[in-house]
Amino acid sequence: MVERQLRGRGIGDEAVLTAMATVPRERFVPPEMRSDAYRDDALPIASGQSISQPYMVARMTELLAPRPGMRVLEGGHGLRVSGRGAGADRLHGNLRGADPALADAARARIEAAGMADRIRIVIGDGSIGLPEDAPFHGIVVTAAAPAVPEPLPGNSPTAGGSWYRWGRGAVRS
After folding, report:
1. Per-residue H/E/C for 94-135
2. Minimal CA–CA distance to 139: which of 159, 109, 114?
């Protein structure tokens, strides 16, 4: 996956590539999808949600330019974090999503993967960010949206910026 899907398509940050190779993506998909965990596609998880395509995860992570101690907010349900680099020692993430069942599943998978000390899951409206913990060095919104939710940019006034997904591309705010 790393050589063909990521490095072969221009992902060059070695720390991101290492995280993508190291984080066990199969732990973040339902058991019946584990054989497809490294497929070059988004995969369904539950409640009509999906885990992002490996390339999209790597690209958005690389665009954040992760560095030690960086605090990142991910708007989503947390199951997309499989390669976000949160598995690497470089990022500390806060995930925000509205579905309690998906949040519980994400929490269990993150704990099983040994990442619970670096990732916190918050249930709530991801479109408002996490203002009580702002500012963040960067924000990644992994759920496609028609427009940038107005409160999010105020959560991340520092370097790194914000990355949002629209359809097939990543857009910087």
Report:
1. EEEECCHHHHHHHHHHHHHCCCCCCEEEEECCHHHCCHHHCC
2. 159
Is pLDDT above 60 for 81? no
Token digits for 3? 């050589």
| Active-site position among 35, 47, 50, 52 | 52
CA neighbours within 13 Å on the CB side: how many for 164?
Answer: 16
Q: CB count, 10 Å around CB of 144?
A: 12
Domain 2-172's class?
alpha beta
- Domain residue ranges in the chain: 2-172
The pLDDT value given to residue 77:
58
- For residues 54 and 51, give the distance between their C-alpha atoms in angstroms, rounded to a whole number: 9
Which distant-in-sequence residues (6+ apart) come within 8 Å of 5 by Cβ? 40, 54, 55
Q: Establish whether 162 is a catalytic residue.
A: no
Residue with tokens 């409640």, as numbered in its chain: 47
47 vs 37, higher pLDDT: 37
The closest alpha carbon to 17, from 109, 110, 90, 118, belongs to: 90
Is residue 45's pLDDT more than 70? yes
